[in-house]
Amino acid sequence: MKTTKTVHVWNPLWVAGLLFAVNLLLHGCAARQQPARETVISKPPVQEKTAAGSLLASAHQSVQSGQFNQAEVTLERALRVEPRNARLWHEMARVKYGQGDYGQTVQFCLKANSLAGRDAALIRQNWQLMSRAYAKMGDTDKAEQAKMKAEAAN
Amino acid sequence: MFRKKKSPPKKGQPRKSKSLRPAFTRAGIAVLLVSLVAFIFYANYLDKVIRAKFDGKRWSIPAVVYARPLELFPELAFTPEMLEAELQLTGYRKEQQAAAPGGYDRKGNVMHLVTRDFYFTDGPEKSAAVTVTFAGRRVATLSRTDTGERLSLVRLDPARIGSFHPREHEDRVLLTRKDLPDLLVKSLVAVEDRHYYIHFGVDPLAIMRAMFVNLRAGETVQGGSTLTQQLVKNFFLNNRRTLGRKINEALMAVLLEMHYTKDEILTAYANEIFLGQDGGRAVHGFGLASQFYFRRDVKDLTPAQVAMLIGMIKGPSYYDPRRNEQRCLQRRQVVLEMMREAGVISEEQFQTARAARLESSDTIMSGFNRYPAFLELVRRQLDRDYREEDLTGDGLKILTTLDPQVQMQVEKHLSATIATLEKRTNRKGLEGAVVVSSRDGGEILALAGGRHPLKPGFNRALDAQRPIGSLVKPAVYLTALASGYTLATPVDDVAVTLASAGARKWRPANFDKQEHGRVPMYEALAQSYNLATIRVGLEVGVDKVVANVRRLGVDRDFSPYPSFLLGAAPMSPLEVSQMFQTLASGGFYLPQRVIGSVLTADNKVVKRFGLSVEQRFPADLIFVLNNALKRVVSEGTAHSLVSYIPDHINVAGKTGTSDDMRDSWFAGFTGDKLAVVWVGRDDNKPTRLTGSGGAMVVWGKIMQALPLQPLELTEPQGIEWARMDAASLHSLTDYFGEKAWLPFLAGTTPRQTVTARQQAPQQASPPPPAERRRKSGTGLWDTIRGWFR
Questions:
Q1: What is the ipTM of this complex?
Q2: Residue B289 sits in a domain of what CATH number?
Q3: How far apart are CA B116 and CA B44, in angstroms?
């Protein structure tokens, strides 16, 4: 397990906090009036020092060494910790691709997209992967459509 | 011989004196021969019996069922009390200072624990000494106790929650010869059977000695049974001390020794010997006994503890440390002396052990087969993949999804709330069932099949088929939304008469027997109006609604009668749960799971029940529907849920009441959990409870006791928000109420409403957005006022 020590002054959290404060001043009421409303902003890329992050890192390693089943179990653990993290669902899709289960690859990508919110990069990756999965399944039409959606995602 | 018998005896009489001897001898030989043959047959029979028993026992290692492992990480909503409960269930022991695996200590908000080795699906998790600190009902930090190094994640060994064994009410912690510590083996031989390693099954010397002692005492004070004989006796669990029994036992003991090695017999003995009673469960074997009495593994037992267990062999109930403490202590001291005499322990060890208190942990809430309803579901899922013999024969490890924290709350609040409801309605005989699952994983976290969790019997969560009432309405409105309706579409909640072939005319009514006129569709759902629902359902087609119920995951045939629209079709709580699972996960069908994996005794994965998803409904459609289901709680029939669950959790759900209030249902989900509750009577008589008066109260009480994530509905692309004036069904630009905002599928926003927002569709928070508010409000004033809300 890797541990990273970051005690920078420009810690992303500080920056986010500052931006939030400015935002509050400018759009105070809107921000305050919707506290319970659903937030669509996808979670930031998983930090390695978090529980899900360390599991994701370990799953990555498994994928790289071709141990997809191992990676799958690890990702399921990560998803139990952060079930709404779109990136984890995307990783699951990659594992399914590696296992040769292209139908599930598409499904996990769709699930990842349904949680991706504004993360255009992730949405693009999902469509790209779906395009490849459809191609593997011999569905060139859908592969092409997915490719176009990938290009449109930004 | 035949001829001789026939010949008259007189004939031989003259020769009597002469031939008497040979005849006598011959008869004697014959008798001897016959009895020898009989004996051989009998011995052969006994041999078969005892070998079948022994082999059966030896190999019949039950499949052990485990709960989900607890994963601790910083920020996890968890309290020290919850962790202690979890550790108790998992068989940890509380110590002054946690030192050995399976021990923990707690000083306020700081807990130290030493986890135990466990082999998971993804590999072994080594024992680790961990320090956990808590703050504000959350895990604050995790670190290694020795080095202080911070940890991001710690996985505990899971609690054993049951086992499948041919003989119910029994359990084992099965030990191999290697698992038996020397101390135990030597002490056992020293105390119970000194000549174990040299005798052939019976020990004549010991028997003679015992007889001598017993004769002198005038009663049976000492037994001369060898370990082998005791094992045989335990196999057949018969305490009659008849001579015939004894001889049988002795014979079988000899036969056993002929077939098996001393080590095999000793191991069987260590696993078989009866050492007490835990409620309805017999405690067999040292493995289970050391867990039961000391919460330790056998290898971690001290000499004093070994002595206590061995002392108890003589009479587990007579020397029960919890009931007959003094007697047990005296017996232990006697055993310790014998251990010292035999040189098993040193003088020093003896003194220490003798001085030790008779420590036996309190009667504990043991996890073994404590959750029969959940185990039943596990068994059924396994039955689809395994044969009964495999389940009972191979020592499989079954890793399940049960979350003991959730299960404990479910059991507690289901029975307590039902008792309260009985008092309130002044009616006895209420029953209930609960299914809780994880929202996005579809894992069954807890299950109750009735109000008495330990009482086996009718499992209502799985087997009660009851009309689901208004719980079917989300499927009706889902179908409507997919057919072009919007949440703002006006629908008529006015009386309707349905003619059905050959039957009387059906005139459905609302619960309050009123008509509500023209209402927007979301309101019809939130207020659970029957008339509006019937009209909408008939318009879109009952067959389509039925098809969607199937697509939601209840894969059965239902007749498309209009009454289906009001939930006349019976379903089990588990089926309802699967249906709502698809809604809760945003339109993705997840086969609900109770088992993660099945491992063999040597930790090979033989079966995985992995996560799988299948999009059954478009995300935007479900998003719109779920928003309406939130209104059921925020302003509709489940409004009183707020007395249990704070507003900001944003529960989405639906109440359900069947005809004459025979069934009370509630299904709802938060950010992380979906729960379905049914309350009703086994005899199907009216309960006097509505969905919100019965099942929803149980739901609220359970969820209230658990850490909850607020429900966040991720907005998919293409959703448009528009302000609605509920009263006039027209948009109003100056209407501020949050309730005026509704989501619409792209392109379906009614023309007379004003689309609130034109930004990127994935925009974080739904309207009303700031700039519009400023336009209509007083800008700065609004801003400042907002801070104080």
A1: 0.74
A2: 1.10.3810.10
A3: 46
